User: Fold this.
Amino acid sequence: MVCVSKGPWLDEDEQQAWRSYLLMNRTLETHLERHLQREFGLSKSDFEILVNLSESESGRMRAFELGRATQWEKSRMSHHLSRMEKRGLIRKESCQARYPEIAITEEGMAAIKACAPAHAARVREFFVDIFGPDRLAVLGEVSDDIVAKIGQHCATDCPPEVSGLDAT
Amino acid sequence: MVCVSKGPWLDEDEQQAWRSYLLMNRTLETHLERHLQREFGLSKSDFEILVNLSESESGRMRAFELGRATQWEKSRMSHHLSRMEKRGLIRKESCQARYPEIAITEEGMAAIKACAPAHAARVREFFVDIFGPDRLAVLGEVSDDIVAKIGQHCATDCPPEVSGLDAT
Assistant:
């Protein structure tokens, strides 16, 4: 049993806020995803891989690094990278290191450049500007605290074999 | 082009907060999901359907009502309900109305009752108590504003055929 401050159940206000958060999160995600798909033919998963690769110094990352960045499981990553390679967005490259690298192609770079301004504008309109700078800063801080707390928990209480982020 | 207050790009602080939020959201979701699966054999999708049905007055909902509540697409809903029916968690019932109803079974009700306290305790430990009451209340309000704004946008600017929530 987890050690909690007020017993496990959420009171009415807590429950309401938690559900509002879940609904917002899903509504926003669906909205952003729908526009990416409709206007640029990219899924949220495509977008995420392309953002990570395009922001890496060399335009190349190993699959396990992408796995760490996205928190996807190995099999999902492997299948999705194969589909993206067939569509010409990425390329698997052999290199001297043990594991091949995943490189963004010119086509992939063009795709992410084309959709980035509209995507950023939607994030601003439907998230950043509604929070406003002060509340957004607080959200960022609390978010970092939550990630740190889950990280500590996983380091001590969750067996590593269920982490899904093995380096392969 | 979307009408925005400061141009489309996010500045460094905004970008940082947005990414912290995305990482928190994914880390928390993965964490809750992993424990549901490991301790109770339920996926996040199973849990979501069972929560909705168990909280409905009669323990029954139409598929399109579940679709509205979860914002899943029709095909995902249909496939997932079939899998849950095979596992005995729900039952599709013919009734006098045009569309069959989805009912939670005794087994489904037992499953949701078994996992709910541990799930609530995790939501408290890794989310509610880290926000604290004041910041949580603000998050709830901003979340409602975002959902309302996206709703208005979809009512006026998004063609209904892409909403994925048709009543069938």
Q: What stands out?
A: DSSP finds five helices and three strands in chain A. Chain A touches chain B through 62 residues (CB under 8 Å). Confidence is low (pLDDT under 50) at residues 162-168 of chain A.
